[in-house]
Amino acid sequence: MKSFQVIRLNVSSYQDPLFLQREKQSLESLGLRYCSTKEDLNDSPLILLTNTHTEISEIPDLLSKTELIVHPNSGYDNLSRDYSYIKSIPTIIGHEVRAHAVTEWILSSFFEASIKRPQHQSWDPTRKWDRTLLKEKEVVIFGLGHIGRMVRDILKTMGMKVSVVDPYQKNCYQSYKELEAKRYHALIVCCGLNEKNEGFLNKELFSHLSFDYFINGARGKLVNESDLKNYLIAHPQSKAFLDVFSTEPFQNEWRDFPQVICSSHIAGVYKDLDQEIINFEYRVLNDFLKLNDNEFAAKYSQQLLSSKLKEGVII
Q1: Does an H or E element contain 164, and which?
Q2: Residue 110 and residue 186: Cα distance in Å, rounded?
Q3: Which CATH superfamily is domain 5-93+271-314 in?
Q4: Which parts of the chain have pLDDT scores under 50?
Q5: How far apart are CA 288 and CA 284, in angstroms?
């Protein structure tokens, strides 16, 4: 059996200072040689651990001996941007690590916007609540991946009419132009970023699909932010919940928009995230070491980055 070495080049600011130590301990229990820097590497075949900060085009020397890439993130636009460098290397995407967390962020934003629950300091004998139930609302979701499916299923269970726009999935609208041009309760962004959809949430789309609430926990560059600002100026009762931005960290771009609620790319962050990343890596690498190539590819067929290649782009 081959003797593999493994390296992680980037960590994120939200990760615990002890994360690398815990990751090293876990993966070395599989018999892997864990390297902390490029200088620690030898000539053994390599397993590369990546995140959203990893620039594939900057490490061709490592890729020449890399036999597996593990990317325990939901977003992988940095990998798809440089896919030509790694198309021959099996690359496993960790949707499962953050999918529930991002879904919860989306739903918490949606319900925060949609339901204003009254509070009474003393008994109100009228017992009135002038509201329209959510089952009367119409929502548009962009993207039917892991997160989009969960959001769709939960909202539909509550009786809402949910339309999904995804040109790469069956039983979805292929374009927003197929939807009736009118005002919708919410537009929810759940798709990945690629070279074909950058900035597609723009003035043209907002004029066709006007909205009460706009929710984006996917990628900031999917949105033409100038067009979104102009829409919000023209519709001051509308709100936007933004966790991602075209340039991060955001500065003062949204300071003059009180109807915009910003967070700092934290939709997928939660208390046990570090351990879930390590657990995911352990499971994948344990299988990689024990299974033959065909068995491994079959088990992870839905998590291979190559399975996301549709019509020349990584979706």
Answers
A1: strand 161-165
A2: 8
A3: NAD(P)-binding Rossmann-like Domain (3.40.50.720)
A4: none
A5: 6
